[in-house]
Amino acid sequence: MRLCGAPHKRKSIDGLMSLVRTAWGEDVYSGHLFAFVSRRGDRIKVLTWSRGGFVLLYKRLETGRFRLPRVEAEAKSVALDSTQLAMLLDGIDVAQVQRQPAWTPPGRTGS
Question: Of 1-10, 58-67, 92-101, which gets the smallest average pLDDT?
Answer without folding.
Answer: 1-10
